[in-house]
Amino acid sequence: MLKRAGRTTRIATSIAALAALMAATALAVTPPQGTFKGSGQKNYDKNQVTVKTNASGRVTLVKIGWRAKCEKPGKFWFGGTNFKRKEGLAQDGDTFHDAGKYSSPTSDGNFTGVISVKVKGSFPDTSHVEGTFRAAVKVKNKQGNQIDSCALKTAWHAKR
């Protein structure tokens, strides 16, 4: 009798887990085609976020304005990053992500930032998108020597 009760418990647990998985899958949102606009990093006035989706519900653009605090006191690296893919970012249903690395000089040309970025996002419903953004900057002088580093991790959100 104990064996049978154990087996019944395992079956009931498996059925409950399967039901929860099916419910989560049923709740996944297919993103609609369009443009979502919003904001990210607090205490920075150029923190605009834009997310675009195509007719297939694929995220084709995430554009984020940001400011990363550097290790040197009072210093910041200002940036704007575009994650743009004609075929769409890596996406599974209503969640997506992308990452990359690029270089960007300062306006006076005296320094270059080697910037690593990551974005993650999801659609909680068909009118909203939200996620996180990370940036890490290695600041280099004209000779190519690293003189500082800057970093940022922030949440963002946008709506139709």
Task: Provide an overview of this structure.
- The protein has 160 residues and is of the alpha+beta class.
- The protein folds into two domains: 1-29; 34-159, no CATH class.
- It contains one helix and nine strands; from the N terminus they run αβββββββββ.
- The model is unreliable at 1-26 (pLDDT under 50).
Task: Fill in the keyword field for this structure.
alpha+beta; 9-stranded antiparallel sheet; disordered N terminus; 160 residues
User: Could you tell me the radius of gyration in angstroms?
Assistant: 22 Å
Count of separate DSSP helical elements: 1
Compressed to H and E, one letter per element, the order equals HEEEEEEEEE
What proportion of the residues form beta strands (DSSP E)? over 45%
Mean pLDDT: 88
Low-confidence stretches: 1-26
What summary fits the major beta sheet? 9 strands, antiparallel
